[in-house]
Design goal:
Blueprint: E1 32-36, E2 46-48, E3 52-56, E4 66-70, E5 78-83, E6 93-101, E7 109-119, E8 125-136, E9 141-149, E10 155-163, E11 170-179, H1 205-217, H2 223-229, H3 239-249
Antiparallel strand pairs: 1-11, 2-5, 3-4, 4-11, 5-10, 6-9, 6-11, 7-8, 7-10
Length: about 260
């Protein structure tokens, strides 16, 4: 918003009204309606709920800066951006992508969600999930949906990033809203094989050695290794996992049990 003041008017002139620049409803040559890089600018992103939004050069996905969400009190507190219905029209599909990362905390993974808050035709506040992904601590993950439909009759659109649990700080970078079907490049998903602690592509005696060492030291060479060692997916590595790895290597079992709660 800017204010235009005419110089040289008479003393009876009234202050001019604020003038809102027109919204650019056309995508750029990449099909992007917005591309927020956070290089020296928040690009109208702000805290969602109790969270605060701050530019940070600690751990960008690209270039020199990312946007930090801090002082969160609830998991849904995060970072938000208002979307214009002149651009993102209800009943139409669009492509959205945001990269997210976290560095603090004891958990090796964190689930991020890209969501849309909006008012329906009756004026009631509603929520819709745009995309969800699991981030490995210290590595960016992409939250992307190439064909998300803005709900019919929606208004007061707020695109925001939250987590499924926890209140730790997190970062976002390379936030993009684009024409439907636009695929945005982002970090590759992290993959691993259960039991492959040394990450060489095989589950063998070398992994059994690593499993025994981890029981003694309670440490792993990487977050991926710690996830691969928790073969029963109980949320922690212990002697049960080591025994299961041994049984798998000896051919006594051909698959690991799923003990997720």
């Amino acid at each position: 918003t800017f204010v235009v003041t005419l110089e040289g008017g008479s003393g009876n002139d009234q202050p001019s009204e604020p003038v809102t620049p027109p919204v650019n409803t056309d995508p750029d040559e990449n099909g992007y309606y917005f591309h927020d890089t956070f290089e020296g600018d928040t690009f109208s992103w702000e805290g969602h709920g109790a969270a605060e939004a701050t530019l940070s050069g600690r751990t960008p996905y690209k270039d020199a800066e990312a946007l930090l969400s801090q002082n969160r009190e609830k998991a849904w507190n995060g970072l938000q951006k208002s979307l214009s219905t002149e651009v993102f029209k209800p009943g139409k599909e669009y492509s959205f992508s945001v990269c997210a990362e976290y560095l603090e905390g004891d958990t090796p993974t964190q689930d991020f969600v890209l969501s849309l808050q909006y008012a329906d035709s009756a004026g009631e506040t509603k929520f819709a999930h745009v995309a969800q992904a699991t981030a490995l601590k210290g590595q960016y993950v992409q939250l992307a949906n190439t064909n998300f439909m803005i709900p019919e009759g929606a208004s007061d659109l707020l695109l925001y990033v939250e987590t499924t649990e926890g209140t730790g700080n997190f970062y976002i970078d390379e936030a993009i809203g684009a024409v439907s079907g636009t695929k945005v490049d982002g970090p590759s998903p992290v993959t691993f094989v259960l039991g492959d602690i040394n990450c060489d592509g095989n589950v063998d005696n070398f992994d059994m050695i690593a499993a025994r060492r981890a029981l003694i030291s309670s440490t792993f060479s990487s977050n991926i290794s710690s996830l691969a060692a928790d073969v029963d997916m109980s949320g922690e590595y212990n002697v049960t996992d080591a025994l299961l790895i041994q049984q798998f290597i000896l051919g006594k079992i051909t698959a690991f049990p799923d003990n997720r709660s």
